[in-house]
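INFO worker-7 received task bundle
INFO bundle size: 2
INFO processing item 0
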Amino acid sequence: MISSKITGTGAFIPSITKENKDFLNEHFLNEDGSPFNSENDVIIEKFKAITGIEERRYAKPEYTSSDLAFFAAQKAIEDANIDQEELDYIIIAHNFGEVKAGGSQSDLLPSLSTRVKHKLGIKNPNCVAYDILFGCPGWIEATIQAHAFIQAGMAKKCLVIGAETLSRVVDKYDRDSMIFSDGAGACILEATEETDAGILSHATQTFANEEAYYLHYGSSFNKEVDQDVQYIKMLGRKIYEFALVHVPVAMKFALDKAGVEIDDVKKIFIHQANEKMDEAIMKRFFRQFKKKVPEGVMPLSITKLGNSSVATVPTLLDLVLKGEIENQEVNKGDVVIFASVGAGMNINAIVYKF
């Protein structure tokens, strides 16, 4: 049976570093517009303790999400050593389209995937380009879709990208703005006849009842600014509790479906949303097998890169594969899990063998 495997990865990490101390002079407000009782240094200290974030990266003003996606795509294509004209699909996961620096309007015409195909200079009209909106799990879901195309015989080579410039859709008066960052990660997924490598299984769920608006657009907490301009907003506590309950279950479902033993899982590449949340998810996941979390099983990039939504998992994967994260590596034959949770609320996981 035809399966699919990752043959190349690439990431673009923006050059502008914004440290926690850079938020000391921000004017954070409560949702109703009232000021916080705590000083900013206290807010930032608590933020670091909960999220693990020390700094994050922002894109240069002249770059947009499709630029970041293009840079990551070039690296993935080079890493896979393929002819880009042979690509059957270009799938880009994002959530907010093209937002120019200093602007507030999202531009989705043409799609980001079309823009990336244009920037790459691909002439082949049979290379189909489309976008996917699936919250933070978008890159994993796009990879699952590319895998399905390959299994169906509709594709042999796919370029899958996650790209975002979240720094341009945050409300600076909302302390949650400190979580988000910019970036892009990409991979090449190719057909393989190897029966014991590549994507072994996957799982996806959408919860759209009371969970549907845990992440949403909303007005600035500063009631004196234009209330028609919308920003990313989230119900942090509810998302945290939701993730702890549902993500470990989805991960176990995918692992069971793959027929892989828990002791054979070497790494878990989980969405870099919140370090404490990810650690809690790991504990609950391994507890289902009556196991403790193995040391080093969960690589982290959030400390220095923040939460770049759809870009976190592919960027983290690229960093580990390229030896950029200390004491983290993946070897041939290793089984890993990719997992994410985000707006929808959506959850997904892939069990993959290198």
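INFO item 0 finished
INFO processing item 1
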Amino acid sequence: MKNWKAILIFVIVCTLMIAGCGNGGNAATGAENKQTENSSAAQETAKKDVTIKMFNFKVEIAEALDKLTEAYEQETGVKLEVETHGGGEDYGALLKAELASGSEPEIFNNGGYVALEPYMDRATELTGEAWVKDLIETSKMPMTVDGKLYGMPMNIEGYGLVYNKKLFEQAGITEEPKTLPQLKEAVEKLKAAGITPFMATNEWWSLGIHLVNVGLANQPDPRQFIEDVKAGKASFKDNEVFKQWLDLVDLIFNNAQKDKMTTDYASQIANFAAGKAAMMLQGNWTQGDIDKIDPDLQLGVLPVPINDQEGKVLIGVPNNYVVNSKSAHPEEAKAFLNWLVTSETGKKFVTKEFKFIPALSSIEATSEDIGQIAVAVQEKSDTAVGWFWDLFPDGVTQGFGAAMQEYLGAQISRDQLLEKLDKSVQDIVQQ
């Protein structure tokens, strides 16, 4: 059936092209215009009954994506099917299983850098797409290989210690703590006021990616440190920055809610939004879920300190859209991405529905669109540090997460935690 349709489309295109050429050689411009129109008509014919599939990592926008699929089909006639895997699931393992089964989604997500390498045989080059010129320059880095772009950055995100301004006020905290000693003082004031300082989570990705990255980002040269650890020339256990980082980890874990070992991501957000704790280590991606519970909650973002120096928020590209060249409809997938960032409907979803900080300068976003957390991150972006976990091979951060879960449960010591972080790297690198 697919071959029959392809033959029919080919015949239609050829017939229309011959008709266009019949206008004569002296009417070249007119013939080209006619040919373009006919080509577009053929493409519209080809779009009938087309379904493109997206294998989505971003659980926070799953509901909004369902709405977007309806809007996209209504405007273009192309169906978009979204399958979401994230949160507590191992997206990378599930994507590999999907591909191994013979299923080839048109679009999947990838963090870039080292994580992109296993998928280079599928990643479609997007350098020539019209929207590339509008990308914020740094957002291109994770998906750029030899000067060519192989993915669309999903958005810009940032995280830090999201805090409840009302609870801070109740505890008599009048200024944002910037250093670790100042943060410790704030914690004591919160406890004295009967307020739980931190809402922690047991999720491996929050612990093994976001929290560990605080130690990575505070290295004098994060990239060099990571390369040295992979090469066995440096270690977490002997690193002074990570020894200081442990003081921050202890402050959070020792002053979090009692059921932290059984608190998943959804529960963390729900409990924080309900005012059950004053702070949580999270980012602007939580805004939509918080608003569902209490849209009037007054929020801010603290920098994340590890010593007596001022801390910083952490900013990066959380994920990227990759067009799968081995899928049935890569051209339709590219058309969807273009629609997402250029059409008024698509841009509205990016800002108002997804609550994203856009990665493109051509998309405007107000505080009403993207929320208080994103605005607070933007205000501190001048001194922000980056995201570096994707410089490790796949599987390393999962090992980090498992070690952090053990430490959260007080099952291992500080030294043992650092040793396990080192082992997580070497177990993968030496394979």
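INFO item 1 finished
INFO post-check item 1: The mean pLDDT is 89.
INFO post-check item 1: The two ends are 45 Å apart (CA to CA).
INFO worker-7 idle
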